[in-house]
């Protein structure tokens, strides 16, 4: 780890007034600083800022500094969000990690975290080692010739499925962005992962009211039961009336370069009977546009099965 200056601003205005890297729970930033993947000169501990609170009176509003474990346990939080949080990391990390930090965590691609190997996300123009290297855990959807790294957040998948927004602030004001639009496809610039502008800070996450999101869930498939990132995951919310699907929200993780909304699956579900056969038919289009690699083509069938499993759970 390289030397850095640490400050602790007392107000949001103070934090936004000077350049630096924000530190909340530190569960991602500190790891990457130890590996010299990230080498900020100025780190600002923002834990004293008034960016907390959980409000479920009309939809869901979550302060960016709320801890993952507190949000997961809060009554009124949609089940898909709570499950996504409880299936993330470990209890110790969930007690430390902030909601805003979780949405900004960097990929767990081994090549990104190894400064001795080429990685366009870490060092633009150096190449993507995963294209011809070990790529079992890498993405099928949203990839490019420059990057095939998966997005790491479980929470973001559930939030994208539920049309969440993020509130962003800088020294000149604030703005609101749909989380689905916040993340960027890698294209030729995989180092640009999201729409966060220099000097901006996530202050709040807002999930619109969706009464039928009470019938929602999150399914995560991984190599081991705990403290492991997803090989594939799915967040679903279903509006079922008279045994038919009136509306649906489906997003997946572990298989894409960003939280991936499956609009074609949602369209196939609308009007269909709430049966396993209909869920299988809808999931058959989940892999449209996928580009499997030498080591991860098993995710093609895994993605479909994971979506079906989540739809069955969400329909109960």
TrEMBL record:
Keyword Oxidoreductase: yes
InterPro entries hit by this protein: CO_DH_flav_C (IPR005107), CO_DH_flav_C_dom_sf (IPR036683), Diverse_Substr_Oxidored (IPR051312), FAD-bd_PCMH (IPR016166), FAD-bd_PCMH-like_sf (IPR036318), FAD-bd_PCMH_sub1 (IPR016167), FAD-bd_PCMH_sub2 (IPR016169), Mopterin_DH_FAD-bd (IPR002346)
GO molecular function: FAD binding; oxidoreductase activity
Keyword Oxidoreductase appears in the UniProt entry: yes
Domain FAD-binding PCMH-type: 1-212
SMART domains xrefs: CO_deh_flav_C
Pfam families linked to this entry: CO_deh_flav_C, FAD_binding_5
Name of the protein: Xanthine dehydrogenase YagS FAD-binding subunit
């Amino acid at each position: 780890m390289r030397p850095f200056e640490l400050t602790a601003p007392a107000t949001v205005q103070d934090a936004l007034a000077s350049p630096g890297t924000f530190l909340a729970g530190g569960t991602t930033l500190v790891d990457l600083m130890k590996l010299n993947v990230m080498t900020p000169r100025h780190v600002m501990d923002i834990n004293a800022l008034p960016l907390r609170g959980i409000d479920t009176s009309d939809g869901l509003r979550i302060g960016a500094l709320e801890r993952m474990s507190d949000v997961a346990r809060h009554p009124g939080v949609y089940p898909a969000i709570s499950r996504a949080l409880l299936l993330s990391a470990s209890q110790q990390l969930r007690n430390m990690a902030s909601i805003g930090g979780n949405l900004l965590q960097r990929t767990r691609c081994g090549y990104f975290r190894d400064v001795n190997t080429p990685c366009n996300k870490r060092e633009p123009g150096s190449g993507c080692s995963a294209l011809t290297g070990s790529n079992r855990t890498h993405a099928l959807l949203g990839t490019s010739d420059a990057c095939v790294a998966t997005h790491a957040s479980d929470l973001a998948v559930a939030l994208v499925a539920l049309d969440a927004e993020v509130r962003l602030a800088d020294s000149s004001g604030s703005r609101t962005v749909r989380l689905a639009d916040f993340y960027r496809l890698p294209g030729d610039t995989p180092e640009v992962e999201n729409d966060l502008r220099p000097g901006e800070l996530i202050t709040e996450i807002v999930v619109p009211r969706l009464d039928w999101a009470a019938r929602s869930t999150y399914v995560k498939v991984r190599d081991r039961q705990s403290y492991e990132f997803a090989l594939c995951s799915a967040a679903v919310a279903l509006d079922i009336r008279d045994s038919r699907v009136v509306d649906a929200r489906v997003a997946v993780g572990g298989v894409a370069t960003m939280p991936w909304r499956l609009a074609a699956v949602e369209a196939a579900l609308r009007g269909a009977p709430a049966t396993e056969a209909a869920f299988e038919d809808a999931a058959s289009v989940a892999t449209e546009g996928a580009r499997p690699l030498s080591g991860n083509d098993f995710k093609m069938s895994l993605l479909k099965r994971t979506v079906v499993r989540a739809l069955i759970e969400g329909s109960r």
